[in-house]
Amino acid sequence: CCPCVPVSSRVSTKIQQLLNTLKRPKRPPLKEFFVDDSEEIVEGIPQPDPNQPKPEGRQMTPVKGEPLGVICNWPPALESALQRWGTTQAKCSCLTALDMTGKPVYTLTYGKLWSRSLKLAYTLLNKLGTKNEPVLKPGDRVALVYPNNDPVMFMVAFYGCLLAEVIPVPIEVPLTRKDAGGQQIGFLLGSCGIALALTSEVCLKGLPKTQNGEIVQFKGWPRLKWVVTDSKYLSKPPKDWQPHISPAGTEPAYIEYKTSKEGSVMGVTVSRLSMLSHCQALSQACNYSEGETVVNVLDFKKDAGLWHGMFANVMNKMHTISVPYSVMKTCPLSWVQRVHAHKAKVALVKCRDLHWAMMAHRDQRDVSLSSLRMLIVTDGANPWSVSSCDAFLSLFQSHGLKPEAICPCATSAEAMTVAIRRPGVPGAPLPGRAILSMNGLSYGVIRVNTEDKNSALTVQDVGHVMPGGMMCIVKPDGPPQLCKTDEIGEICVSSRTGGMMYFGLAGVTKNTFEVIPVNSAGSPVGDVPFIRSGLLGFVGPGSLVFVVGKMDGLLMVSGRRHNADDIVATGLAVESIKTVYRGRIAVFSVSVFYDERIVVVAEQRPDASEEDSFQWMSRVLQAIDSIHQVGVYCLALVPANTLPKTPLGGIHISQTKQLFLEGSLHPCNILMCPHTCVTNLPKPRQKQPGVGPASVMVGNLVAGKRIAQAAGRDLGQIEENDLVRKHQFLAEILQWRAQATPDHVLFMLLNAKGTTVCTASCLQLHKRAERIASVLGDKGHLNAGDNVVLLYPPGIELIAAFYGCLYAGCIPVTVRPPHAQNLTATLPTVRMIVDVSKAACILTSQTLMRLLRSREAAAAVDVKTWPTIIDTDDLPRKRLPQLYKPPTPEMLAYLDFSVSTTGMLTGVKMSHSAVNALCRAIKLQCELYSSRQIAICLDPYCGLGFALWCLCSVYSGHQSVLIPPMELENNLFLWLATVNQYKIRDTFCSYSVMELCTKGLGNQVEVLKTRGINLSCVRTCVVVAEERPRVALQQSFSKLFKDIGLSPRAVSTTFGSRVNVAICLQVTLKKSFLVRLVERGAPQSLLLSESGKILPGVKVVIVNPETKGPVGDSHLGEIWVNSPHTASGYYTIYDSETLQADHFNTRLSFGDAAQTLWARTGYLGFVRRTELTAATGERHDALYVVGALDETLELRGLRYHPIDIETSVSRIHRSIAECAVFTWTNLLVVVVELCGSEQEALDLVPLVTNVVLEEHYLIVGVVVVVDPGVIPINSRGEKQRMHLRDSFLADQLDPIYVAYNM
Questions:
Q1: What is 698-718 written as a DSSP string?
Q2: Residue pair 1064/1055 in contact by the 8 Å Cβ criterion
Q3: Residue 1246 in 3-state DSSP?
Q4: In this structure, are strands 1099-1103 and 709-711 parallel, antiparallel, or unpaired?
Q5: What pLDDT is recorded for position 1077?
Q6: Residues 1182, 1090: contact at Cβ < 8 Å?
């Protein structure tokens, strides 16, 4: 047995306080009665290492860029530049678009750009509404929806908006009604107040439509009017119409969208002045000149692709060749070919494009890159950019690429271009690299790494601060305090060339766009506002800027910072070509159990074998551990092309994280390593010494508390003038009823249609029993006292056979018949009970008799050695010469066998006096008499279910409507319809039945109403069980059927155990009590409900199972019971007397002068005195059952009840049908049944691990995902966890997936 909580421990005082607070409804602070363990857990987080590196430099001073040059003919606005070139250099090329094969398909000249933009501007302002009510006014926002392969239409639309003074908001083309980032885009459109979307005719045709040809309403989007901007739909402006072009000021020019780390989309507003100044700074930094050709591979709608390819080119009358992403997919070398063909001076690329060009390089021998003076690498801030640039240079240097042409830069939506490397002078030495210690970086400190090349990060500079700009580095979190010179922080820039705000978000704007840095004392440094760039880095020697990561990719684990991109780079460095796709790895952190945990998700190639994958996964884990000194919590591989993508092919991180957390990522391989990375669990608990028999006894008090005991009404004081009391034996009562009320119907059996298939009056039952008794003598040659197994489906035949045995003096043993479709699982139990009970004979039906002797049965058990089998279908009509009467009421009446949840088969002996006492107690508690009718939907094979089905009607004379639970599977309405049809006041069911109705009829309440089913007649609906009340299920059942009249007070429970099948039954009190139990040091409290009213004649006491001394009120201990209907002992092959004495005839070690003999139930619980008074005027003592002692799991020094862990797990995902837990060599094993599709199997592994860690402070060792129906459940709806454990260890579960958490 497990130790019980000692009397003077914290729990009792906590529970006591809790109970007191329940009396006083005002809510005290939680601290009073629940010590939150989080303090202890926070202690568990590794404390800062005293030897960790700390920054030692002085405070940095802001770094200035070179001054912006004064250019005399610089235009006053970007639109003016367009007007100038459009009118004076109309024939010059401005933009060339490529077709799908990468061939130039159309070139837009400056003249065409100017004239078409003018037409669009005029149309937008004058032709969309009426003259008095125009649709658009200057300053309105407009969405631009153009595909990535149509830069020409986009450019015309963008400049058309600028000329009309409306604000363009470029967004992606929505592909489906529920596009990955679509909803957030809808939020942006809504917050910008956008009612109009510009698009091209081709794009509009491709948008998803409704049945009647309208464009669908995209999820989360405002209602939009779509305007097609193809030339043929535009109106030519009259001669005298001129756009209004004012000098650039701080009024908004356009809005660029950006996605935050959480996945929300924000609009960065850029003013006309910033747009112009940024163009000037870029032109100066890149030394742009008129007529140069630029090849642009980037997205032209935003960031560097927009700034260089659409703004700076117009400013400097350059020619942009736009290479769409779709072409890069089919022809990765196309951009290199364009540079060669057009002798381009500048190319705008990402590392990905360098990588792709190298992969495809063999196809092209004769390209030349000698014309390039700048290869601008826009993601130069990525950790893998150095190696990409180096590899690309070494391959293409022979093709004329100059080393000094490679120019990494760093950008962000808020700060625009943060820094860019200037084109170098031929022959000048290339800038140096920084080789930094990863460990230092994780503490935010710059340390040059000289020893271990593996744990070093090599970074290249991204050049100098922009012309006319200023830069400082501030601490990433908290107030914007300037960093020290050797400290990593967030890069902030101050200049006229950044964004001005997040549109419509004033609060976030202030923190990002209006930052005044402060010194260590907290006072402001200067009055120039800076913009946070979202990039992490430092300013190195020679004022070179180095970027080491992004704020969005920052993972804070146990107080150390890791950069998601670095971890991706480490993953890529592990030779992975066979297993995963290079660009498709997502790294993010999830918050589990008071810390961030790292999750790595990658797309697996379709041809990778399981072996390859696991090898790659374990290598990645080791690499990340050794290089970054951080554990990965979960590494998942998903099938190719299933991760959500951003429009230009990257992985959508926030969407991936959301799918992971909601369990819809569908991995095909997964490794969880909670054991290595969860280091902040509280220390395992030590056992407290118990309070021994020496505790102070004062009358009925133990150390100042009432002894925890409770009792039902005293049987002796109840006056009964009932004739039944004369009879000591149930068989005599049946005979007496057969004479007194022969035609009174005792039993009605229903089928799935609700039709009565069989009834039994008192006389019919008596006659039937007589025939069975005579056949036992004639065919079975049985003697009084022989055991007889009754093998029948639930019905009246079973009842008749039971009384037939009593008439013949045999001892009946009711056994659930084997399942014809599942003999291998169900027949061995039957065989075992037949053997253990030493049955002399089996009574059954013809069908079952054939089954017992069938070939299929022979495969499962030995069918040759069955005892005599008698079928009772057609019996001769014979009267018995005389009925057997036992010499004393202490003689055995029947044996009750049941398989406990731990898989133990236990049979208990019920004497005639116990049967009488049990029936009498139930009759008194439920007020049963012959004019009453009850409905029973239970299995009739053991415990209270058997007593209600077979014994009580005969004793009390009430009519029982019998509903076999398996009939419900064919007709879910059966039980409730019957209750309604017969206007039943009291009905009994099992948890399985209640669950079937709750799950199956959840959405059918309206159907029930239309069928006229009304449950207002029900006074009590009692769930029969030998377990803790399932509060949540009872509450959902009550809530669900409240609408058809079920009273919220009707549902109640019973509690019985092997030693005493009915201890509590029904709560007809005004309310049943709910309490929250906080076991000592347990992380979660439990909601418990009272287990029903204690039956008349029953006494309970709560005992410390180790000392066997009584415990105080509200203390947890084992429930002991004393009552006239307690079983008289176990029925075992080897009658072990010690066990009998220990379980059935035990005395308290102290405090009981009467020396009462108690039976131990094996359940933990407590008794609590409530405010209510019973009828006698005494206070009502409520009994609460917590769970079976032999089921508890001892883990980390705490006692857990499986049901609590299972409840947590069942809630996490819609596809979990059932769940069971057990332990195996100190590991917690969780088995879940998956009712969804198999691709969801691995989604469950991280969710199960998370919830058990969060709610129970336990690390799951193994997660087993199986098909529905694998977890064995007995007839009472209880899980057979030990059977499951045996099958698991014997490898018989045939699981869908087994995850061993490392």
A1: ETTEETTEEB-EEE---GGG-
A2: yes
A3: helix
A4: antiparallel
A5: 54
A6: yes
pLDDT per residue as tens digits for the range 275-311? 999 999 999 999 999 999 999 999 999 999 999 999 9
Ranges in the chain, pLDDT < 50:
1-12, 14-16, 18-19, 21-43, 688-704, 1068-1072, 1079-1083, 1133-1135
The string of pLDDT tens digits covering residues 1258-1287 is 999 999 999 998 998 876 778 888 889 989
| 310 touches 337 (CB < 8 A) | no
Identify whether the C-beta of residue 620 lies closer than 8 Å to the C-beta of residue 571: yes
Alpha-carbon span 1066 to 234, nearest angstrom = 81
For residue 955 the two structure tokens come to 């004793």
Dihedral, CA atoms, 1076, 1080, 1081, 1087, nearest 10 degrees?
Answer: -20
Strand partners, 64: 470
Q: Does the predicted TM-score (pTM) go above 0.90?
A: no
The two tokens of residue 551 are 């704020």
Let me know: does 707 contact 1110? Beta carbons within 8 Å: yes
- How many whole angstroms separate alpha carbon 321 and alpha carbon 300? 11
Residue 1136: how many CA atoms within 13 Å on its side-chain side?
A: 4
- On the CB side of 629, CA atoms within 13 Å amount to 13
3-state secondary structure 395-459: HHHHHCCCHHHEEEEEEECCCEEEEECCCCCCCCCCCCEEEEEHHHHHCCECCECCCCCCCEEEE
> Residue 806's closest CA among 724, 725, 912?
912
* Tens digits of residue pLDDT in 1237-1253: 999 999 999 999 999 99
CA dist list (Å): 129 to 123, 125, 133, 140 = 10, 8, 6, 14
Q: Give me the helix-helix angle, 151-164 and 78-88, nearest 10°.
A: 110
Q: What is the DSSP string of 949-995?
A: IIIHHHHH--EEEE--GGGGGT-TTHHHHHHHHTT-SEEEE-HHHHH
Q: Measured between alpha carbons, how far is 679 from 558 in angstroms, rounded to an integer?
A: 9
Q: What is the pLDDT of residues 444-464, one digit of tens each?
A: 899 887 666 677 888 999 999
Q: What is the pLDDT of residue 900?
A: 72
DSSP result, 346-383 = EEEE-HHHHHHHHHTGGG-SS---TT-SEEEETTTTST
